[in-house]
Design a protein that fits this description.
Number of helices: 16
Bound molecules: pyridoxal-5'-phosphate
Distance between the termini: 62 Å
Oligomer: single chain
CATH architecture of the largest domain: Alpha-Beta Barrel
Strand content: 15-25%
Shape: globular
Number of strands: 17
């Protein structure tokens, strides 16, 4: 079918709510997709959004069985098992946001940096956002698209290398802009400033960039004093104030940002809305996000950038662990070959209780256990869980949603080995892309 006929057929199918047409839309080249979203009316677009979300939800539902089946097989534990096909499902949602808005989407490397899946992600996204030299290098060498770097402060000894591996450099103070803006500009980079929008709704202070006395983002009073003198050397503004949030929170943050910084936006090249957008979550309001971006672009005539991390790999990986032993002390405590302290540190930091497939809350099912790690830390406890049958030594457990902020943050406390990293490829084959050992532990100690 030629391009004209294909887009006409897709438009007809989508207007009737045909799920197959939504799949074909996502698999079509960019030109066809542009024609289709350009031709659909508001109702048709809302229908397309629904179909895309529904198709994605079904794929993730099916994946649960696959994870359980693989956990019962010969795979060695502990292992982070990443499903590339699920990452692709997330990527398609982001591509759709790009289709509808023209926004650029970068992957925040801080959340997930397993480059074995970067060739796939780079087919959909515009590049990476980096927190400093090493992430900028990884973005440049492995993702091979744009690199946008922000750090709360840059080290003099690293700045040249950061400039050579970045396409834009975002500063957290006017001091840093004055010091490094010149060399960055000479290197051909875009220059940005991170501002504090003055409104955040993240309840856990640890994760709230807008908490009182936050060091992240220039506050409005400082900005007003200095920006007019330096505006010529600035291409864009950046804010990051969300954490695992929906687009209603973005709307309120954006309102606060525009109230404070709106009069300075026209004439800039871009505004970066940061990360923390839980775009690929089932209940995420995509239509509102799309409306917010399009309204913003229409008003201010700038490129909008998003830099989610979590959302890109949400629910796309698990951590499979084995029960090593079960001890008794008022409760039955299962000691696993994984640990909250070393392999899922956010469980203790956030804190949160990760879900284990086929488990319930404490005492919801007949047999309950405390799941804990093998380290010396008394608090190395993952949580209390219940099961339909008693746990056995050697049994495998599957912790869900472990691709994000786990592999990038894990550590070798107590000399505990790091989990393998394995990827389920499109073909269904499982590739163990990394195994760790004594050398990795030793090399970090000197
Ligand atoms: C500046 C910045 N951008 C992007 C992100 C990615 O956020 P998330 O992984 O929650 O989407 C973060 C997370 O802390 C961040 O600090």
């Amino acid at each position: 079918m030629d391009g004209q006929h294909l887009s006409a057929a897709l438009i007809r199918g989508l207007s009737k709510g045909d799920a197959k047409a939504a799949g074909q839309y996502l698999a079509s080249p960019a030109g066809i997709r542009r024609q289709v979203v350009g031709a659909l009316d508001e109702r048709g677009l809302a229908l397309l959004t629904r179909l895309i979300k529904e198709a994605k939800r079904k794929k993730f539902e099916k994946a649960t069985t696959r994870f359980l089946r693989l956990a019962q097989g010969s795979i060695e534990t502990p292992v982070y098992l990443i499903d590339e096909t699920l990452i692709e499902e997330n990527m398609k949602v982001l591509m759709y946001v790009k289709d509808r808005t023209g926004a650029k989407v970068f992957h925040a490397l801080k959340s997930y940096a397993s480059f074995a899946t970067f060739p796939l992600m780079a087919r959909y996204l515009d590049g990476t956002c980096a927190s400093g030299l090493h992430e900028a290098m990884l973005g440049r060498k492995e993702f091979r698209k744009e690199v946008h770097t922000f750090s709360a402060a840059y080290r003099p000894s690293e700045i040249r290398a950061i400039i050579s591996h970045s396409d834009s450099l975002i500063f957290n103070s006017f001091y840093q802009l004055r010091k490094y803006g010149g060399p960055a500009r000479k290197g051909g980079l875009d220059i940005g400033l991170r501002v504090n929008p003055g409104h955040g709704e993240v309840e856990t202070e640890m994760y709230n960039p807008c908490a009182p006395c936050s060091r992240l983002g220039i506050v409005h009073a400082e900005f007003e004093k200095e920006f007019p003198k330096l505006r010529k050397g600035v291409d864009g503004l950046h804010f990051h104030a969300l954490c695992q949030q929906n687009s209603d929170v973005l709307e309120r943050v954006l309102t606060a940002f525009v109230k404070r910084y709106g009069k300075y936006i026209r004439g800039l090249k871009w505004v970066n809305f940061g990360g923390g957008h839980h775009i690929t979550r089932d209940d995420y309001d995509l239509e509102r996000l799309i409306r917010l971006i399009n309204d913003f672009k229409r008003t201010f005539k700038v490129q909008v950038i998003l830099e989610p991390g979590e959302g890109n790999v949400l629910n796309a990986g698990v951590l499979i662990a084995s029960v090593l032993d079960i001890v008794k002390n008022r409760a039955e405590i299962a000691i696993l070959d994984t640990s909250a302290e070393t392999h899922m540190p956010d469980v203790l930091l956030m804190p949160y209780r990760p879900h284990v497939l086929n488990s319930g809350k404490k005492q919801e099912k007949k047999y309950w256990y405390r799941l804990a790690g093998p380290s010396c830390l008394s608090g190395d406890v993952i949580g209390d869980y219940s099961f339909d049958r008693p746990l056995r030594r050697g049994q495998r457990l599957v912790f869900t949603d472990m691709a994000l902020y786990s592999i990038v943050k894990n550590n070798t406390f107590n000399g505990i080995n790091l989990p393998d990293i394995a990827v389920i490829r499109d073909s269904g084959s499982v590739e163990v892309v990394k195994k760790f050992g004594y050398k990795d532990y030793r090399d970090r100690q000197s």
